């Protein structure tokens, strides 16, 4: 489901990160959501080939129980596919913008006795809505926010000053000590990590070493699709060949060619875009978090929102 | 629209009955002359005016009596309603979904005034008027799921999503087709479906779970399921099998048309906003063979479906013992003529 909203506020949070607020143009209440949810923003661009629509997913950072507006924070990625650049350079207050209804792939497990939230860099975003939900539900939690420098710590402006909110700025010598964070937590604590892959792996590693049950360790899987080398795909049903540009995802290229593929997260986590491969002469570069290792190795499935291809011929069952 | 509510029972003297209007709108589940399990899922609400598919939560002539029957079942066995502690938020989500939908769809029966979290709910058919604070459990006489489902037809399961699966962590189950909440509570999608024959091997459950996990806010879906019940009994639970199981033996060729009911479940799926849980209402509709054959298309089709059904399904659904009698009765109403596509009776 889609919502046609208006951009009502844009704020520069740090040199690279802007906050955007969207509201219903007629002031109607928007659907409320759960902490950790994201939405997909549509960005339409005119090119020589006609109008193309790019879609990027962003975590919601606003109060989940407040239907007055939705807020996201976008970090400018100069080497990305252009979605974040579009948000930074083309979107202005007063513009109309089309977004999806919120959806959640990173929800809190409310069975937990305590929640430990660990965000690195822009990975702080899903926790901003989660901590509002935790406050409202009066659940015990602590949040750890790690950033290289104060300049990069866009989340500082959005975090409450509270005893259970800890900021670790490595440039200032206060690096996060994961052992100290996780050791001694009460039995039944759940930990959630969002940020660079290295941080997610380090938390999982530390939790395993301390004997935490796997089901108590969560991480936000979805990330933006990486750019890569251009390649071509063939649509099995029509024989049509489609070119995927360096700064385009396979899903975006299919959409631009009007080939329908279902999607939700556009970040390799929800499974919606799962597509069968009918011929593969080369190597699929799997960047998703959905397929199993066996499925990856078999090269008979691909997640077009994230994954790319290198080789002579890739044919999709579409 | 004013609605008439039947005064009827679902146990003891079994005075349950369908008006001609209720028969016409019955959700007959077969869209062709044969049946096998499938991932039969479509969007909800949506359907011809007057059908049970039109509104988010259908309210019909059996409403008041069904709620009285639920009260009896709960008084005898409080474990029919259970909610693990982490599901309370999902209960509030469900309460909101039902109150908002019913007040919108049936303004003459239900009214909801909301001022922030101060809510005022009026349920005219049941004579309830209640002011309470949304999200504050101290302001309701019981938990939010129990409160609203004591006022809503159909069973309700609330599913918690984790580890790419759904877990039955709360429910109000008093009109079930021979399964038990107390047994299933805390189980996941594959565990509680384990008794179903054939479907797992056919891949039905893998596909269905994948679909359910992807259901988003604002996208609602439904599917129909069915079984056969002797006498119009809502509470066909394993706990009370000793009460209704032996009734299968009371069916004779003379009374099968009146005593044998087709039991249809209108199952719907909703993603709940604050909890991200999935709500799974299971609404039960009952019509006996006499009711059904009043629509010639249904008489013909039901005969063919029940005659040709896979024996494993007849067994699982519990009507194998009376299948021969049922099929013989229905054969009187099947002249061999072709049936029209779709589930609806011919005009
Ligand atoms: C999360 C939602 C669902 C819940 C809570 C649920 C629950 C149940 C339960 C409790 C049973 C009875 C099992 C027993 O004998 O103990 C059942 C049966 C069954 N379910 Fe589900 N179910 C759900 C969704 C689905 C979906 C989406 C499908 C899609 C195909 C499905 C297909 C079936 C089938 C085919 C049966 C056998 C029914 C019969 O033959 O009477 N279920 N379900
Ligand atoms: S759209 Fe979610 S995995 Fe591709």
Any chance you could write out the topology, listing elements then pairs?
The complex is a heterodimer of chains A (318) and B (347).
Chain A: E1 2-12, E2 17-23, E3 38-47, E4 50-59, E5 70-75, H1 83-89, E6 96-100, E7 114-120, H2 125-136, E8 141-147, E9 165-169, H3 178-182, E10 189-194, H4 197-209, E11 217-219, E12 231-235, E13 241-244, H5 250-256, E14 275-285, H6 293-298, E15 301-302, E16 308-316
Parallel strand pairs in A: 7-8, 7-10, 8-9, 10-11, 12-16
Antiparallel strand pairs in A: 1-2, 1-6, 2-5, 3-4, 3-6, 12-13, 14-15, 14-16
Chain B: H1 20-24, E1 42-44, H2 63-76, E2 81-83, H3 88-105, E3 110-115, E4 118-123, E5 128-133, H4 144-149, E6 155-162, E7 165-172, H5 181-184, H6 189-192, H7 204-213, E8 220-230, H8 241-244, H9 256-259, E9 260-271, E10 278-288, H10 289-293, H11 296-308, H12 311-316, H13 323-331
Antiparallel strand pairs in B: 1-8, 2-7, 3-4, 4-5, 6-7, 6-10, 8-9, 9-10
Bound molecules: protoporphyrin IX containing FE and FE2/S2 (inorganic) cluster.
FE2/S2 (inorganic) cluster (FES) is lined by residues 263-266, 268-273, 288, 290, 303, 305 of chain A.
CATH homologous superfamily title of the largest domain in chain A: Nucleotide-binding domain of ferredoxin-NADP reductase (FNR) module
Classified by CATH, the class of the largest domain in chain A is: Alpha Beta
Shape annotation of chain A = globular
What radius of gyration of chain B results from the CA coordinates?
20 Å
**Count of separate structural domains of chain B:** 1
Widest sheet, order of strands of chain B? 1-8-9-10-6-7-2
Q: How many individual helices of chain B?
A: 13
Give the H and E element order of chain A.
EEEEEHEEHEEHEHEEEHEHEE
Secondary structural class of chain A: alpha/beta
Strand count, sense and closure of the main sheet of chain B?
Answer: 7 strands, antiparallel
Low-confidence stretches of chain A: none
What small ligands are held by the chains? protoporphyrin IX containing FE, FE2/S2 (inorganic) cluster
Largest interface: A-B, 25 and 19 residues
Distance between the termini of chain A: 23 Å
Broad shape of chain B: globular
Q: Kindly, what is the distance between the CA atoms of the first and last residues of chain B, rounded to a whole number of angstroms?
A: 23 Å
Major sheet description of chain A? 6 strands, antiparallel
Low-confidence runs of chain B: none
Number of domains of chain A: 3
Element pattern of chain B in H and E:
HEHEHEEEHEEHHHEHHEEHHHH
Keywords (chain A): 2Fe-2S, Flavoprotein, Iron, Iron-sulfur, Metal-binding, Oxidoreductase
Organism (chain A): Pseudodonghicola xiamenensis
Pfam family, one (chain A): DmmA-like_N
Protein name (chain A): Ferredoxin--NADP(+) reductase
